[in-house]
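job 3f2a | input accepted
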Amino acid sequence: MYVVAMLLWFASALVLVTFLGILFGLAVSAGVDVVARYRVPRGVGAVAIVLGFFLILVGAASTNMPTIRQQSAELRTKIPESLDRVEQWLHKRGIVLIDTTATDSTGVTSRADALRSTVERQVGTAAKYVFPFLSQTLAIVGGVVLIIFMAIYIGAEPHVYHRGVMLLFPLRMRDRAGEVSRAIATVLRKWLVTQLIAMVAIGTVTTIALLILGVKPAFALGLLAGLFEFIPTVGPLLAAVPAIAMGFLDSPEKALTVGLVYWGIQFLENNLLIPLLMKGGVNVPPVVTILGQALMTILFGFLGLMVAVPLMAAVIVAVKMLYVEPDPVPATIPVPPSPGLAASG
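job 3f2a | predicted structure (345 res):
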């Protein structure tokens, strides 16, 4: 057990990427189950679903890429100016964020320059810690390719891998282990579909709201909001920071309005959209979510942050079914029959 634990720790990046591959494979499997009803071979259906997904992404990106590229460049140039506005607004009210001051070539001190340099330094430090993989392009490409192929193979033949895992359990435990694994698969599939729907909804609503408020660049900020939505709790906060900063370019009141809009969107999502989509599933308590994300980020960096919530959801299902309510299967965790898993018994 010690050797296995050390091996898993040494290969933690591969383990987390494998978990993501299984997660996306479960979603592909659900789509393959649908197309298989029309006598489409599962292998062909899995490849078609994955390729179709990427074609949709490429089509959407090619349509909006000129606008997004232009607004992204504008966002990079405007953020320093917005930091100056924030510092000036706070300084007028007697709030000094930094004691140290920067001196320009003429010898004049500038708190704005000091603020900007401090923010850039802190962001750079955080990026090196949370996003160490950004400097490993080959590792990123390899991880993405691995996830894609795992999703295709698992989606095409889920019963093969399900049966292989079940063989690791003693014979007397296989029926119960199968029930638990199917419940976990259902919850993970529902979680992923919920996140994808939420990403599209939040990105669209945020873009429309920013366009109405006249905040530039709305499309780039909406895209950020949609992408960061995949990271629960922390992602929306990260997405709101540049939008609020851009609001300061016009006035502090607009920045406050943008912050309230982001809060309102998240409030509606957490209290209306997510409960509706996750009805009958397992919701991870907010405190457990925050602590789990913090722990996984400290241990494994950005990959740990990405998989923290679905991994905790899977653990909660297993604990609830095996320890809290060992028999029968809890009614709150549906275990529908799956054509792809039926062959495993």
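job 3f2a | Confidence is low (pLDDT under 50) at residues 99-109, 126-131, 341-345.
job 3f2a | closed
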